[in-house]
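tool=predict chain=A
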Amino acid sequence: MEATSRAQQAAERAGTIPPLEQVRSDVWALALEMPGGHIPYSLCYLLRDSAGGVHLVDPGWDTEANWAALLAALGELGGAPAQVPSVVATHLHPDHLGMAHRVRRETGARVILHEREQQALAGGWAVAATGPQLESWGVPGERRAEMAEVHALAAASPEFHADAVVADGQRLDIPGFDLLAVWTPGHTAGHLSLRDDARALIFTGDHVLPSIFSGLGLGGPSVTNPLADYLASLEKVARFADYEVLPGHGYRFTGLVERAAACAEHHGIRSRQVRDVLAEGGSPTVWEIASRLSWTAGWGNLRGYLLYSALAQTAMHREYLRDSNHSPST
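tool=predict ok
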């Protein structure tokens, strides 16, 4: 895997915001701030169509600073808000969809999501962080208040109705582009990647990131196992080995096959750790299993949303292993 933007890579390491970058003659990458400091920025992409309109992919968190940055970027491209015909959000999280509300209000742009993501938004996607859920996971009473951050995240993405929904393989209406929707569930149930064969680009949102392993099942209840979905989705995008990857965070890179394999192995390691805990016998709760796994930040340092994510993923791995069709390789 190799970074194709040294400026973005350096900024991620330093925790700063990289400048607007041109990716192709008609594609730019704009870094937008992320509140909270855990991840410094998200990446919004601007696509100038053959008629002069500028379409957005993942407009980022809705802050005054981000709105000003977007207006400045449009100005640098010689455009204006009135020239934004559409917005595509790879998924429902506020660091990707958040500013779509304002962009639509100010520009009249059509907002596009995958159909599953619209269903999740309509249904209240963060309902998993409830008292009964936390009790069933064995979360100590004194730690449950932290999970309010999960509801705060959902509140930052209130009920939202897209102007259009797309399905897997559907072509987006962007003149001069042959941009195809690639359904890549796992991070959320309706996560989208976008593929441009002519430019050899693939926009991966939070599905495949260069230096972070995405959390799974973070888009509300799912009828399928998000881990199984994610592993299948990795195989789907790994077919495009020669494409440049334009992720939702971090930096642009090549080497999608290598990175997809690393993402799969990361979750394979977690499944094997959960399997080993379960093999010791007894009926450990999700909390007890998670406390015995290895976490990048360390179990004792997980708080709030990160703690909820760790517990949700532990539950996913346990369910994945209970399915007789799934057995992580050693």
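The mean pLDDT is 90. The chain is about 35% helix and 15% strand.
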